[in-house]
Design brief:
With about 140 residues, the protein is of the alpha+beta class. It contains three helices and five strands, in the order βααββαββ. The N and C termini lie far apart (about 40 Å). This is Serine/threonine-protein kinase RsbW. Keywords: Kinase, Transferase.
Length: about 140
């Protein structure tokens, strides 16, 4: 009987591309729990600690709230995850015809800057996105 193993998470696919996951949801706060749950599950697969996962859930909630505040009515929330070795990069974006300039003094931004290793906001006519890069505390 031969043993089979599942592919390593956080590396590359057989084709040499990084592991990526996409999720599309209605841009409505009612679906934020789905995004938080997926994020926590992916982080767990990357062996993030429980504290890391809880911090990531908080950061994702803040990022999603920022994007939802700017999203056009009826827009779709596009969430893209890139899984690396002990790190998770995610981008949350939605169509926004007239997004406001990022407020780097806001409470939400301060949360992202504290909990993520890297954070960025891209607000251009037609699209608003927040990108986060979070590394496992075990990788330090």
């Amino acid at each position: 009987m031969s043993e089979t193993s599942s592919p390593a998470v956080g590396g590359t696919t057989a084709a040499g591309r990084p592991d990526e996951v996409e999720l599309r949801l209605p841009a409505d706060g009612a679906y934020a729990s789905v995004l938080r749950t997926l994020t926590a599950g992916l982080a767990a697969r990357l062996d993030f600690t429980m504290d890391d996962i809880e911090d990531l859930r908080i950061a994702v909630s803040e990022a999603a709230a920022m994007v939802l505040d700017e999203a056009d009515s009826g827009a779709v929330l596009d969430c893209r995850f890139r899984l690396g070795t002990s790190e998770l990069e995610l981008t949350i974006a939605a169509d926004a015809q007239s997004p406001t300039a990022p407020d780097y003094e806001s409470f939400g931004w301060q949360v992202l800057a504290t909990l993520a290793d890297e954070a960025a906001i891209d607000a251009v006519a037609g699209r608003y996105s927040v990108r986060l890069l979070v590394r496992s505390s075990l990788a330090s």
